[in-house]
Structures are given as structure tokens and as C-alpha cells.
Amino acid sequence: MKIILVILHSEDLLRITKRIITVKSVFAKPYNARAKVIERFFIEFQEEFENMMFSYIGTSIENKPAWLKREEKLHREMHKALTVNKVPTVQETIKFIDCWIQYHNLKPCPNDRSKIIQEMLDTVQKQEIDKNILNDLMTKTEPRTVTRNGITFLGLHYRNELLFNLREQVYIRYSLFDLSKVYVYSLKGEFLCIAKQETKVHPMAYHLGTVKDTEEFKQKIQKQRRQLNKAKKEFLKYFPTEKAEVLEISDINEEPIIELIPVIEKPKRERKKSGLRAEAEEACVEQDSKRRLMRATKQTPQELQMNKPFFNNDYEKYEWLMANGCTNPVDRSWLTKYIRSDEYINMYGD
Questions:
Q1: Average pLDDT in the chain
Q2: Range in 22-36, 224-238, 314-328 with the lowest mean pLDDT
Q3: What is the pLDDT at residue 3?
Q4: What is the rounded CA–CA span in Å between residue 112 and residue 271?
Q5: Over the stretch 228-244, which tens digit does the pLDDT of each residue have?
Q6: Is the pLDDT of residue 9 over 50?
Q7: Measured between alpha carbons, how far is 299 from 315 in angstroms, rounded to an integer?
Q8: How many CA atoms lie within 13 A of 295 on its CB side?
Q9: For every residue of the chain, which 3-state class applies, written as one string?
Q10: Which residues are registered as beta bridge partners of 5?
Q11: Which phi and psi (to 5°) does residue 298 adopt?
Q12: Burial class (CB in 10 A: 0-12, 13-18, 19+), 92
């Protein structure tokens, strides 16, 4: 078991590192350079490197550079002429830091003036630390919800086959230096999978795209089919007698189709019947079929209100309500007001 001694400044970093490696936490007093030897390096880095950057704005009001202070128009104009208000990118900053570290290591060592800092560092035995563990420690964690498009982050979509049927909130850990993938964890901190960035596909690959676009389109379709077949197999494990098919949901606004149940007549006996008896049986069968048809086509009051026609005049609405009835308080209130109106008295009388 490897034990790494780490001096932590943040409780969030401590919580993350405890999940991955065995860490012995040591909390030092703030602003105590003897307990934290790294503080000397931080001060030298700030005084020698940060102050020389053209985007440096200071760590406090007293430490602000001259071009940010009041009534310093000359310094402001000189700074604008020299830098054109440019801010270095992340890659440029990394190069600047590497150059400064090389310059810093060539300085004499404060503990042994006969050697430089780089020579003293070469005598120290290096620890073999896995870079992947360090990258995991430095990644940032954010909550995200898994949708039908996978995980959406910074306008990009990330997918994995294990997230196919998952529709809940998860934690993702990412690095801005590598946005091609994100690490997905559950809310309990359990590792789920690595979701990779989904690339865009030409929608008209077969007609307007190149050979590469066509191959990418084929791979996407095959991947979707594999996921669908996998979901069917998982379904059949728990429901072996059922048939796994894609459900087709009809439109809500589509009118319901009323299916008429045909009347199945019983086979007649071979014995002879009188004419009156045969006519009576035929009449009964005909009445029974009409009754079934009326029962199948009859609409409920709620369906009548939903299929209410558009009325050009008030008297048309009155006659429709009298024929079909009022099923809501709005129509009842309108009917009461209409009965008291002059139009009703002139057309229908008291």
C-alpha cells in the first residue's frame, strides 16, 4: 500500500483524494512558512513571475500595477501600446511557466551556494506517481442529468452504451485540456463509465458527403442498432414470453377510431320454421345489430364537449346545448344569461 503525504489547502480536494488513493492529511497553520515549505516557492513565483506578466492586475488594492491606478493616464497608454490589452492563452501561459522554472532552477541554492537548484533537485530521489491519478485529482466535478442525447456539457454531447437506459442525475469529472471524454460517477461516488464526445455526422452523407462521411454515417447507424438489439435482449431476459417491439404512439389530436363488432349469427337449425317465426327472428337480429351500432357510436358527455362545433350565432349554441346538455359550469352560466337576453325572448318567447 502506497501512502502519499499531501499538504492540502481545500476540503474539496481532500474529499476527492480520499476516494482514489490512501492519503494522510496534515493541516498546517495558515501563513506558517516553516510548516509548509512550499510557501517560499509560492512567494518567489508571485514576485518574479506574476509581476512580470503583462496581464497582471495585483493580488490586492495596494499591489495593483500603475496602469490600473487612478489618474495614471501615461502608464495606461504605455501599457496599451506595449501589450495591445492582450491576455495570454492557457498554452502560452504553460510555456511561460516552463521558461521561468528553467530560469529559477539555474539560480544558486539558498541551502548550498556552491550548487544551483537544479543540481540539488537531481540528488533527490523522485517518487513514481501515476499521472492518471494526478489528472483525476486535478479534474473538476459538476452535476449533470443524462437525457436522450446523453450528457450535454459545454455544448458538446457525450455518450456511452452504459448510459443508454439511464435517465437520472450523475457527476462528471472533466479536464479542460482534454474535452474528448468525461468520467461519469453516480451520486454516491461510484464510477460508472467513460463517456466519449459524440462527433457530428453529415445528414446527407450518401448524396452530398464524401466517402469518410458515408462511413461515419454507417457506423453511427450500426451503433444505434447494436444498442437497440442489446436493449431487446435485456428485455427478453426478464419477459421471455413477451415480444420486444418498438411502441408506436399515436397522435393525441387524432380522432379515435371506433371499431364495430360484427354480429355473429348462430347457425340455423335444419328444421323447418313457420314464416311468422322466421320473420320475427330476423327482426330481433336486426334490432340487436342496430342497438350494438348505437352503443358503439354513442359519445360520452366529455367527448361531446371536446368535439363541440364552432357556432356563428348564439341561437345555434343554445340549440346545440339543449340537444346535448351542459356538462360544465361555463356553459350553464352562458345558458342562464342567454335565456334572459332579448334575442331569446324575440325568437323563442317567454
A1: 76
A2: 22-36
A3: 39
A4: 128
A5: 787 778 777 877 766 55
A6: no
A7: 23
A8: 8
A9: CCCEEEECCCHHHHHHHHHHCCEEEECCCCCCCCCCCHHHHHHHHHHHHHHHCCCCCCCCCCCCCHHHCCCCHHHHHHHHHHHCCCCCCHHHHHHHHHHHHHHHHCCECCCCCCCEHHHHHHHCCCCCCCHHHHHHHHCEEEEEECECCEEEECCEEEECHHHCCCCCEEEEEEECCEEEEEEEECCCCCEEEEEEECCCCCCCHHHHCCHHHHHHHHHHHHHHHHHHHHHHHHHHHHCCCCCCCCCCCCCCCCCCCCCCCCCCCCCCCCCCCCHHHHHHHHHHHHHHHHHHHHHHHCCCHHHHHHCCCCCCCHHHHHHHHHHHCCCCHHHHHHHHHHHCCHHHHHHHCC
A10: 24
A11: -70, 135
A12: exposed
CA triple 294-296-297, angle to 5 deg: 65
**More reliable by pLDDT, 4 or 270:** 270
Distance between CA atoms of 94 and 176, rounded to whole angstroms? Answer: 14
Question: What pLDDT shows up at residue 275?
Answer: 57
Write down the residue that cell numbers 509560492 correspond to. Answer: 42
CATH architecture observed for domain 134-219: Roll (2.30)
CB 263 within 8 A of CB 295: no
Q: What percent of the chain shows pLDDT beyond 70? A: 74
Q: Are 112 and 122 in contact (CB under 8 A)?
A: no
Alpha-carbon gap, residue 13 to 19, rounded angstroms: 10
Domain boundaries defined on the chain: 31-133, 134-219, 301-348
pLDDT at position 247 is: 47
Mode of pairing for the β-strands spanning 140-145 and 151-153: unpaired
Look up residue 52 and give its three cell numbers: 512580470
Distance, in Å, from the CA atom of 69 to the CA atom of 113, rounded to the nearest integer, reads 40
Grid cell of 5 as nine digits: 503525504
